[in-house]
Every structure is written in structure tokens, then in C-alpha cells.
Amino acid sequence: MKVFQHVQDIGDLRVALSEAQEVKRDRYQWQHLGKNKTALLIFFNNSLRTRLSTQKAAMNLGMNVIVLDVNQGAWKLETERGVVMDGDKSEHLLEAIPVMASYCDVIGVRSFARFESREDDYEEKILNQFIRYSGRPVFFMESATVHPLQAFADLITIEENKTKARPKVVMSWAPHPKALPQAVPNSFAEWMLAADVDFVITHPEGYELDPQFVGNARVEYDQMKAFEGADFVYAKNWSCPGVTRPEDYGKVLDDYHTMMDWCVSARQMAVTNDAHFMHCLPVRRNMIVTDDVIEGPRSLVIPEAAYREISAQVVLKRILETL
Ligand code: CP
Predict the structure, then answer these.
(1) Mean of per-residue pLDDT scores for the chain
(2) Could you tell me the distance, in angstroms and rounded to a whole number, from the CA of residue 56 to the centre of ligand 1?
(3) C-alpha span between 166 and 300 (Å, rounded)
(4) Which residue(s) pair with 109 in the sheet?
(5) How close is the Cα of 312 to the center of ligand 1, in Å?
(6) pTM here?
(7) Is the pLDDT of residue 160 over 90?
(8) Cβ contacts of 128-135, under 8 Å, gap ≥ 24
(9) Strand, helix or coil at 109?
């Protein structure tokens, strides 16, 4: 595997899920694969789970790991070509990428949507430069538009907890005070559509996700109706994807105080099929989900985060096997 970005990059999902099971059974059996190999994990944005789980997964495989917080201790990077660099940015990404690549065998990058231009974000301007100029396998640790390590861990979580062959999975928008990217819901939709689940998306009008990720997924604007009979509820906020009105890209469309009905609570969970609650974390309690639901017996948020180690290890293992 040279790039891990989309669900297709992992191949047959049944094979990937069975490999995840094997990793879960004994995560230290492939230490030989990573011997004398170095993973460089580059963070342009904050992280708790991705940083720790990916580092742990690499160590499970016997790799050396270097973690770089670009905003702490490195030179401030210019990302645009043609800019006269007379400001506070001392180094250009076009030199930094091959230099960083010379110290490692595999590169993971986190670089969120900047909301400056929908086109730049949806063309994955930063990550594509790593793919083009590093000469190394690149895996996405949440980019402007996707978070595949999270979606893979989410799928493993559903697989481990489902009690019927084809569970109903509902992804629900929920309120948030700040504008958040669409990477998590985009990837979750992409992976659910490739998996054997009955998938429904619910959100207020105006938050339609990009068709390249949601395809012809069922969208139900009435949240209570969408939740009926759900086996899994996946809550997430996202800002306006700008599909119908590009000028609204990255905006919070309504004052969140007026949208608090969308916060997932016992009221919505009551119409589900005793659904499990999922969220990628970090989560703002009593905005996205109430205390009682996230702390309740059907909440899967902690095992879901723990499966991030498993998803990262399957991906790194696949990459190492092709080096
Ligand atoms: N879910 C997730 O990616 O968590 P972090 O942002 O803490 O890495």
C-alpha cells in the first residue's frame, strides 16, 4: 500500500476486518516487519488518540517512531508556491518534505481543512504534496476531507458489537459552537457505504455532505425518524460542506443555541433498537451528547478509541509488507 486515504485503499473489507481480528489476538507477532524501519508522524494540528494509537501501533510492529509537531519547535512552513517569503514563514514545504522523507520509511500526516478555500481543501493540497514529493508511502491521519484510520476503527467497533448481519447505522449531525471540518463524517459515510450495513444520515438542511463520499446514501432530515430502530448511533458535528451554496463552505449555519434539539439524549435513544452510541472523540458533552448517554451502558466511545491502535496497525503492517 503506497497511500492510505480512501476505503478502496484497504481492499476487501472482510479481509481487512479479519486481519484486524488477528492483530487484536496477538499484536506483537510481526515485530520483524518493522525492524530498522522508521515511521515519521507529522502533525499540523492537535491530537490525542491519533498520535498515541499510531505510535503504539508502529511500536507493536517493531518500528522506530519520530513524531513531529510542526507548530512546536519546527520552522514555520510556507505551503504556497510563488510566495515571496518575507513574512514569518522560514521554510517551504517543498524543501521540508523531501528532507523529512530522507529520515524515514513511512510518513503519516495530519493536516485539517483550513477553510480558506473549498477547492484547496477538497483537492487535498497539503497531503497531495507529501504524496508527490516524499517518495514514501503516505497514510492520512486526518486530512482536510478524510479520516480513514478513524473510520476503519469505527467499522471494527461495529463489527465487534453487532448482533445482526446487517445492522442499522445512523450518523447524526449534532450542534457545536465552532466550525468543524467534514473529514470524520465523510470517511464514516464512505466506509459505511462499502460495508454491509443499513446506513442513514440525518442532519439539518444545508449540511449536505459531498456526493463523492455519501453517494446515494439515505438522508433523513427528521432526526427522530432517522433514529427509529437504529442499532448504532454515530454522532458528529460538521460545518457546512458548501455543496449547494459554496459561499457557505466551513460556516456554522445557525446559532447553536437554536439547534440544541439535535444534541443526542435519552429522548432520541428511546426510539432506537437499544442502540450503541459512538463518537470519534474528543466530544463536547451536552452539546453533541448528554452525560447520561455517553456514560451509559450502550456507549462504545472508549473501545472505539482503543480500536484506533488496531486500525493503525493493520494499515502500517500492509505498508511494511510492500516496502
Ligand atoms: N478521533 C481522533 O482522531 O482523535 P484525536 O484528534 O485526539 O487524534
Answers:
(1) 98
(2) 14
(3) 18
(4) 42, 140
(5) 13
(6) 0.98
(7) yes
(8) 129/79, 129/93, 129/94, 129/97, 130/42, 130/97, 131/3, 133/94, 133/97, 133/98, 133/101, 134/97, 134/98, 134/100, 134/101, 134/107, 135/98, 135/101
(9) strand
